[in-house]
Structure formats: C-alpha cells, structure tokens
Amino acid sequence: MADRYLHLTGTAPGRFLTRRLGLPQPAPLRRWSLQTPRLDGPLLHLTAGDSAITDELAKALAATGLTVDAQAARPAGIVLDATGVTSARGLAEVHAALHPVVRSQAPGGRIVVIGTPPSPEDHHQAAAQQALEGFVRSLGKEIGCGSTAQLLRIPAGAAPGAAESTLRFLLSPRSAYVSGQVIELTTAAPGPVADQHAPLAGRTALVTGAARGIGASVASVLARDGAHVIVLDVPRAQDDLVRTADRLGASALPLDITAPDAAARIAAAAPDGLDVLVHNAGITRDRRLANMPADRWAQVIDVNLDSVLRTTDELLTSGTLNRGGRVVATASIAGIAGNNGQTNYAASKAGVIGLVRSLGPRAAAEHGVTVNAVAPGFIETKMTAAVPLFIREAGRRMNSLSQGGLPVDVAEAVAWFAQPGSAAVNGQVLRVCGQSLLGA
Ligand SMILES: NC(=O)c1ccc[n+]([C@@H]2O[C@H](COP(=O)([O-])OP(=O)(O)OC[C@H]3O[C@@H](n4cnc5c(N)ncnc54)[C@H](O)[C@@H]3O)[C@@H](O)[C@H]2O)c1
Q: pTM surpassing 0.70?
C-alpha cells in the first residue's frame, strides 16, 4: 500500500506544510540498484583509543569499494574504531572523534561504530563497551536525513576478513532500513566468495512463504545474488508461486510447511542439498487472549514456530543442509516488544529468537551451519495493508526513519546472512525496522 504521507513530504508545498505543523519528515531512502550499488561519497575511518585491529579494519574497509579519505569533508560513511576504549574516561575519545564530523555527513549516510564484546572479567571494559550501545542507539535517533548508525562488535581473535561481509552490508544502500542495531561477530573464518556480484553462485536456497510479500522479495534478492532458488508456499497459492518461480528462473514447491512430511519433501526437492534455508512463511490470527480460541493459538504457533523447529532439526540431522549452510528465520519486533491482540503471534516470534540464540553456536560446531533471524518492523505488505488505518500510520511513523520498510529491506538482510562470507555472523537477530520505538 502506498505511503501517501511520504509522497507528500517529498513535494515542496508538502514539506513546508508538514514542517509548519511539526510533523515527521521522512527522507526518501536510497536502496540498492544496479545504478546505485554503493554509498554516494567517501568513507572516513576514525579511531578512539588504542586499537589492535587498525590494519585489518583498513583492509576490510578497502574491500567495500568505497574511497577511504581521512580528510573527507562530506563523508557518506563514517567508521569509528572504538575497540580500544576500555574505560569510562576513554569514552571522551568517542565524543572527540565524532562530534566534529557528525554534522558534515552526507544525507542517507552510514555510521558504524566498531566495538568488542563486553568482558565478563573486566567491568571497566564492559562498562565502556556497553556504553557504546546506548551511544549508537541514541545517535540513530538523532542523525535524521535517512542516515543510520550501528554498533558492530568484533571479538579479539576474529579471523582475518571475518567482518568484511558485514561492513559491506552496513556501509551500503542494502541496509537502508536498518538502524540502531548491535551485531556481534564470532571468531569463525569467512567462506570464500569468488564474485562479490554473485556471492551465492552455485548455491541452492529454499524460501518458505515465497508466493508473495517479503518471501517473494527474499527469493528475488537471493536469485540476484546468484543462488538457484526453490520457492515454497501453500498449494492454494500455487498460481502466484509459479509466477514468482518463472520470473526468477526458480523451482516451485507447493507445500504446506506444517505437513508432517515437509522436511522430507524439501530434501527430495534439493537432491544436492540446501545451502540456504529461509523460514519466512508466517501467519497472524489476532485476538486478545480472553477472546482467543485454542485453534487460532495453535495455527500460529504451528506455522510460525513449530514447523520452523521441526524442519530445521530434520534438515540438519538428515544432512540436507550442506556444511557452510545458512538458516535464516523470521522473527518480528512483536516478538521483542509484544503487541496488543498478538499473544500467539508474539509468542511464536519470540520463540524464533530463542531458537536462533540456542541453536546458532551448536549448529556451527556440529554442522558448520549458521542460524540467524531477521526481525522486521513495519514492512509494506498485504499483511500490514490489512492493519486498521490509524495503527498502520503509527506503525509507519514510530521509528527513526519515520516510514515503513519495503520487503526488499528484509530481503537484503537475509542475503547478507546467507553469504558464504558471513560465517562469523551467527546467533544474531537483526531488526529491520528503521529503529522502531517498539521494544527499543
Ligand atoms: N509485513 C510485516 O510488516 C512483517 C513484520 C514482522 C514480521 N513479518 C514476518 O515476515 C514474514 C512474511 O510476512 P509478509 O508480510 O510477507 O506476509 P504475507 O502474508 O504477505 O506472506 C506470507 C506467505 O506465507 C505463506 N504461508 C502461510 N502459511 C504457510 C504454510 N503453512 N506453509 C507455507 N507457506 C505458508 C502465505 O501463503 C504467504 O504467501 C512472516 O513470517 C511475518 O510474520 C512481517
């Protein structure tokens, strides 16, 4: 559904009127396209404290294809290496580094603060590194103009190149609707990527719920990145599913993901195994708990959570998920913040977060597979078009970017998780919500 307010504020009279009324001013977001694959301007690489990763970070930043310029007057990206900030006093260097440059950043820019995991043994280091989280989340709310701010934690002993895929994502138009997020890497070594334009070449990906909405967009972005895609949806959505498959050169698998033999049928559809499994299928059956019959509760838990657990377990243990594989599940900010009328849905989506955090480390150790989740906020789809007008408007505006996201914003995050280069990204839940105030 079109966001008419965003169009209105894109016109001079609309901007004038809404400013006079003190209304939100969403900036049009610049997303990835063949014509705009990169940020439009140079990158500023700053350091606070004594960093042990300066050279490694410089290499990773050079790999983004952006020009790193220490004198950039109008940087499109600013990376502040604060891994060496280990005390409350040291935080002054964070202020000293960013205060003079934050105003000069180009619209639609990216700020990435690099930290390191807070130490369980050193409470001064832990306090300083945790402080960076509050700092970044506040900065995301302040900077405006469609710009974003994130905290990327790189652990001591990270493998060379471990942060590269994440920096490529965060410092690009692909992360347009991601802000105020904290991502913590592991020490796992990245898998090889021969061609950055087709990082999923030679890989097979299956996307559930792919006949329409976010799932169709995920399938499209994974195909763009070179994967052979299998699109799955319920048999009654077969016409849309086949249309999506034909458009992408994908294979269609009409199947209800809650069927008892779902994992076996997925395995049969991928004789060479799966490299990427995206659990996107999801339903809502909203009702306040007092009015909710057991069947509405059960349907939502079954589709959104139980089938995700069952198929993931079976595809891992049967070896259908190849080593180096990626599981990406779909949570929701409702699973973080809770939502009136959505006890079933929020429980299912919080369950997905529990699954990811628990299984991620074990799946990596036992099967060489990472497990992550996206948690979309308000995304413009048929699901959200059905939301009553005033709640829909509130959902759109109550975030740092003052607008809803598009399915492609979620899809780009899934594609980043799915890359062979993202082996160090595991057990993470990335909110794709424009830094929604809900559950923030
Ligand atoms: N749209 C949003 O704002 C938003 C926000 C947070 C989370 N999400 C989540 O993102 C995912 C996609 O949402 P969407 O807005 O594109 O929804 P959508 O309703 O447009 O699409 C969901 C797809 O899943 C399919 N599906 C449902 N049950 C299935 C089953 N049993 N087996 C196979 N396929 C099934 C549907 O047929 C449909 O094609 C869902 O998991 C949803 O909970 C969406």
A: yes
